[in-house]
Design a protein that fits this description.
5 helices
Amino acid sequence: MPIFVKCMLWVTCALLYFMMCSPIIFRIANFAVSDTTFKVGMIVMVAGILLEGAADLQKNAAKKKNPKRFVDTGLYRIVRCPNYLGELIMWTGVLIAGCTAMSGVLQWAVGIIGYIGIVFVMFSGARRLEIRQDKNYGEDKEYKKYKKSVPILIPFIPLYSVKKHKWLVA
């Protein structure tokens, strides 16, 4: 990969992270006080982090038990990518925590674009994981049943596959 492309990739990632964190950055920059919305956002952030961590621990435990089988226990019974869901919940908390402190169209645009960016990245990651799992477990009858009955990323929303959405390439 040419150095210019690497640099542009790095700059783009750094910009996305800044935009994702911007609601909190704007809260600090605008000298906003800690209000109920900030506290709720922080609770949502912690819940997302705990969900992501629990999903990773459950996946590691299941893979230790049976490394050649897909994971469909614990949080993986609710969604197929609970760690990505935890990440989304965490960034939703960041947006909530900063929403009462952002002022002006520019701050709101930066915060919303950052949030949309991480949603895109998480769905893109779910797509890559689905393609890899289809390759590894696609002939397994239990996997086929699991895939048709457990949503890919958001609980209770019957979105069972994002594989065909080629625009979800990040």
